[in-house]
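Priority: low. Protein: S-adenosylmethionine-dependent methyltransferase. Input follows.
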Amino acid sequence: MKKDVDEHAERFDELAATYDESSGDQYMECLRLVVEHADPRGDDTVLDLGCGTGAVALSLADGAGRVVGRDVSEGMLSKARQKASDRGLSNVEFGEGSFREPNYDGEATIVTSNFALHHLDDDAKRDAIDVMAGYDPRRIVLGDVMLFGLPDPEAPFYDPEVDDPATVGVLVEAFTDAGYAVTAVERVHPQVGVIVAERR
Ligand SMILES: C[S@@+](CC[C@H](N)C(=O)[O-])C[C@H]1O[C@@H](n2cnc3c(N)ncnc32)[C@H](O)[C@@H]1O
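Result:
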């Protein structure tokens, strides 16, 4: 792990005020695909890990029964709560929780995560995927920085100082080992993608 959880939380606390203004095309496409593939029904509870300012959670609120967002940055969570309140959403709840310890013991029939898991090293990513699978959701949708080939050292999409993306192969294997079948892999960019995993 390039930075520990507290360092990531501190960094995102500082970024929270301007985070929503800094979205690039690949991020927006990844977000769109995560929302499209999550596709919750009215009886689903969605758990969104690394929820940030609520991009995924708030987009899913209309379709889902309930959405629970978890993040380590109070600054990002505070923005997410403000946006939920501004939109009059009453079925979305945001709270402190990490990939390792989401601090949520209710049901989750769908788990999502967008642009957050790449902050963890590969062993911690595997542990996080096991934690997601531990909720026994019918579907897990992961959008993230992930490597479809060797990263181009001249044009890295990510910042090696703070990001530690896995190969798509490592992620697919982790979902498979956790008892899930990978049903779709969407390549947004050679270093950005979305993986959809369904319970076997
Ligand atoms: C790039 S933002 C993405 C936020 C949101 N998912 C989105 O799509 O806009 C990454 C988020 O991951 C959170 N994060 C970093 N490490 C984490 C961890 N170990 N557990 C939970 N969240 C974490 C950060 O606080 C930050 O809000």
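The chain has a mean pLDDT of 96. Helices lie at 5-19, 25-38, 55-60, 74-86, 122-134, 168-177.
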